[in-house]
Design brief:
With 331 residues, the chain is α/β, with parallel strands linked by helices.
Length: 331
């Protein structure tokens, strides 16, 4: 059995750890507010951009824009994984990376190869441990992403899709549904298709869904079936929305406007996803640190009880020895 000194040392260690986790919880709570404000400030521009692009696509169809053109055969894809640079965030990183790995394995079973882009140190170490070298790496930007990062991602994805290097671009990340809840998402970013907004959260509108053909991560074991489900939901939303599309006069013609807007739309969607993931990271870390603090409180209570029992037992033993010694002297 542990001695009183050992138990007391463990209690002090738990107290010290609890102070750290409690502080990290408070810091994450403060960062959540800033991250959510950043997301909400981005919503009007992002929604307006998507609405405009959607309206033009509805009028001109696929046109001749290479970003709208579906490749005849899918042989090589790009998977963009967005996670954090630091840990202590529960399953925030692991869920995204395991989902991306499962998608890669599903595609490989169909003879499709995949490259990955790692946004966040945890993604870099995950892929390199599996002997996969990311073609692009971004570090020290997960908590505070920049437009420069989004522009790099957007330009690379568009360039490689247009020249035929990749036949699809898939985004895997955590969507911050609210301050304490994150939803795992995989979205087909290229080719660009009709954008439909589906509000699944009362706290933050689901303004990213879908960027192209939206895929809910309800069934990662059958990505194609999930995609088909998303497209059916899209058709239902179109039928439910009976409002006529307002007439807009474009100058120059709509196709020229689309050629200009689509690259801007792609960069905007990447930036929106990055800051959405950043908000989710802080929420996940706060939840993880709160759970750690609660566990430390419970452990401290249990250790204190154990300390009292051991101390009481030690006192009882000492009293018995004293009484036994006194009795022996009397004899």
């Amino acid at each position: 059995m542990a001695t009183l000194h050992d138990i007391n040392r463990r209690i002090n260690s738990v107290k010290s750890t609890k102070q750290i986790t409690r502080t990290m919880e408070m810091i994450s709570a403060a960062k959540i507010r800033r991250a959510r404000d950043r997301v909400e400030r981005t919503i009007p521009y992002t929604a307006g951009m998507a609405s405009t692009v959607t309206g033009i696509i509805d009028r001109v169809g696929a046109s001749g824009n290479p970003l709208l053109r579906v490749h005849d055969e899918v042989k090589h894809i790009l998977i963009v994984t967005i996670v954090s640079d630091r840990g202590l965030a529960g399953g925030f990183n692991g869920n995204v990376l395991r989902a991306a790995e499962r998608i890669m394995k599903e595609k490989a079973a169909d003879g499709i190869t995949a490259d990955v882009i790692a946004c966040g140190k945890k993604a870099i170490s995950f892929w390199k441990y599996r002997k996969i070298t990311p073609i692009m790496e971004f570090i020290d930007l997960s908590a505070d992403p920049t437009m420069g990062e989004a522009i790099q991602l957007g330009n690379f994805a568009m360039e490689k899709y247009v020249d035929g290097t990749y036949d699809e671009v898939i985004l895997v990340y955590n969507h911050a549904r609210n301050a304490g809840d994150q939803v795992l998402r995989a979205e087909y970013l290229l080719p660009v298709r009709r954008i439909v907004f589906v509000d699944t959260s009362r706290a933050i509108p689901n303004w990213l869904a879908p960027m192209s053909a939206f895929v809910s991560m309800v069934d990662l074991n059958n990505l194609n079936q999930a995609l088909a489900t998303g497209e059916k939901a899209e058709e239902g939303d179109e039928q439910a929305a009976g409002d006529p599309t307002p007439e807009v006069v474009f100058e120059p013609e709509q196709e020229s406007v689309l050629w200009t807007l689509l690259p801007a739309y792609m960069r905007t969607m990447f930036y929106a996803t990055l800051i959405d993931s950043a908000a989710g990271e802080q929420g996940a870390r706060r939840n993880a640190m709160k759970a750690a603090t609660d566990n430390a409180n419970e452990m401290q209570t249990n250790l204190t009880r154990l300390y009292n029992r051991v101390r009481q037992g030690a006192i009882t033993t000492e009293l018995n020895e004293i009484v036994g010694g006194a009795a022996a002297l009397e004899d």
